């Protein structure tokens, strides 16, 4: 059986299918020269030194859509196909973005604590919150998930603006400047890929443009936001609220972010439901099994689509 290197966790259902077709090796014990296939995830990816040592690998299958932790250009140059799991998680990640936005607007965590602490009975009604209806929402990265977020927000009657590398044929307003979009927006939702081209593009200037009544939602990658600038803006009142699923050095989250009352924090669970992880896991394994069968894959990343 061909040799598969497993990086990171996989579900029991994935393991059962993989064990029937591959000899699975763990990172602690494998010979790089013998590895034919790799399975990994968006967080662990494949370190550059490990990629360089895998001289016979044919496919790297990523359990997730983001692949910024794999050098896909280098893989393509060497004829290695990198695959990922687009589309099957669009709705779940969009739900997570909307959940974070609503939790910020309606102070969900503050009011939950108000009931649990007994303050409601002792102090009376909780302070008013803000309505999430009729807001101007700037989407940074109107791709597969960005479009799903726009669709899912429809019942709140938003005005949608977007910024990406190119404009799209969509009924929303394109902004070629991220700062200008932030200035016009009540909410900025980040859903671009990570990597060098988006590194800290949400910087102090963008956060100040979003403003004291503004809300930042990040379901993309921690690297997209300058986290130190974000903390400063939230502490000083230059930015109103932040709902974050991803962090610069996750799973480490700065104490300052954890102490702030105007943040809602999630442990990178954008796609983490039983149903969506099952669909992602199935596609991750399908890519490997199809290559074993006929040398093709289902969902190569764009850099490897020509291979
Ligand atoms: P996608 O369809 O490729 O969309 C990406 C969007 O980002 C596109 O609109 C693209 O613009 C834009 N973009 C790329 N580079 C940019 C740049 N330098 N400046 C401005 N815009 C840029 O990807 P997707 O499937 O929606 O996924 C997006 C990302 O979400 C993933 O890569 C991953 O990092 C993240 N994600 C997070 C979770 C989570 O659990 N929190 C789950 C899934 C995905 P153009 O169309 O103009 O190129
Ligand atoms: C996963 C993600 O949690 O798909 C992505 O890009 O960030 C998430 O769906 C991650 O890939 C780990 O598997």
Folded structure, characterized:
The chain is α/β, with parallel strands linked by helices. It folds into 2 domains: 3-88 and 274-304, Rossmann fold (3-Layer(aba) Sandwich); 90-265, Rossmann fold (3-Layer(aba) Sandwich). Helix content is 36%, strand content 16%. It has 12 helices and 12 strands. The protein has helices at residues 12-19, 48-53, 72-77, 90-105, 108-116, 119-123, 144-152, 178-184, 204-210, 227-236, 255-259, 274-294; strands spanning 3-6, 23-26, 37-41, 59-63, 81-83, 136-140, 159-163, 173-174, 187-190, 215-218, 241-244, 263-265. The protein has a 7-stranded parallel β-sheet with strand order 8-7-6-9-10-11-12, sandwiched between helices. The chain has a 5-stranded parallel β-sheet with strand order 2-1-3-4-5. Helix 10 links the parallel strand 10 (215-218) and strand 11. Helix 1 (12-19) runs parallel beside helix 12 (274-294), helix 4 packs across helix 7 and helix 8 (178-184) packs parallel to helix 9 (204-210). It is elongated. It starts with a strand and ends in a 13-residue tail after the last helix. Bound molecules: NADP nicotinamide-adenine-dinucleotide phosphate (NAP) and 2-keto-D-gluconic acid. NADP nicotinamide-adenine-dinucleotide phosphate is lined by residues 65-66, 86, 89, 93, 141-146, 164-166, 191-194, 197-198, 219-221, 245-246, 268, 270-271.
Whole-number mean pLDDT? 98
What's the story with the biggest beta sheet?
7 strands, parallel
Shape: elongated
- Number of β-strand runs: 12
Return residue spans where pLDDT drops below 50 for at least 5 consecutive residues: none
The total of helices stands at 12
The kinds of small molecule bound in this structure are: NADP nicotinamide-adenine-dinucleotide phosphate, 2-keto-D-gluconic acid
The string of secondary-structure elements, in order, is EHEEHEHEHHHEHEEHEHEHEHEH
What percent of residues are in strands? 15-25%
């Amino acid at each position: 059986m061909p040799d598969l290197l497993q990086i990171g966790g996989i579900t029991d259902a994935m393991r059962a299918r993989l064990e029937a077709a591959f000899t699975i090796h763990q990172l602690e014990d494998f010979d790089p020269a013998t590895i034919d296939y790799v399975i990994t995830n968006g967080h662990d990816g494949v370190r550059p030194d490990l990629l360089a040592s895998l001289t016979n690998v044919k496919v790297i299958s990523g359990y997730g859509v983001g692949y910024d932790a794999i050098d896909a250009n280098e893989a393509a140059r060497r004829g290695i196909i990198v695959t990922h799991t687009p589309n099957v998680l669009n709705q779940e990640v969009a739900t997570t973005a909307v959940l974070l936005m609503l939790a910020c607007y309606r102070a969900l965590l503050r009011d939950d604590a108000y009931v649990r602490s007994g303050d409601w009975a002792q102090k009376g009604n909780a302070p008013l919150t803000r309505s999430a209806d009729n807001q101007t929402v700037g989407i940074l990265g109107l791709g597969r998930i960005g479009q799903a977020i726009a669709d899912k927000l429809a019942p709140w009657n938003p005005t949608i603006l977007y910024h990406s590398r190119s404009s799209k044929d969509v009924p929303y307003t394109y902004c070629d400047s991220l700062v200008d979009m932030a200035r016009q927006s009540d909410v900025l939702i980040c859903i671009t890929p990570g990597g060098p081209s988006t590194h800290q593009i949400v910087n102090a200037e963008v956060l100040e443009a979003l403003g004291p009544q503004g809300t930042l939602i990040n379901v993309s990658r921690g690297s997209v936001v300058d986290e130190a600038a974000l903390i400063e803006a939230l502490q000083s009142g230059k930015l109103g609220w932040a709902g974050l699923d991803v962090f610069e050095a996750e799973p480490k989250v700065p104490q300052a972010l954890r102490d702030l009352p105007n943040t809602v924090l999630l442990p990178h669970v954008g796609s983490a439901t039983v149903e969506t992880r099952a669909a992602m896991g199935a596609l991750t394994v399908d890519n490997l099994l199809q290559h074993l069968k006929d040398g093709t894959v289902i969902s190569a990343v764009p850099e490897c689509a020509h291979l």
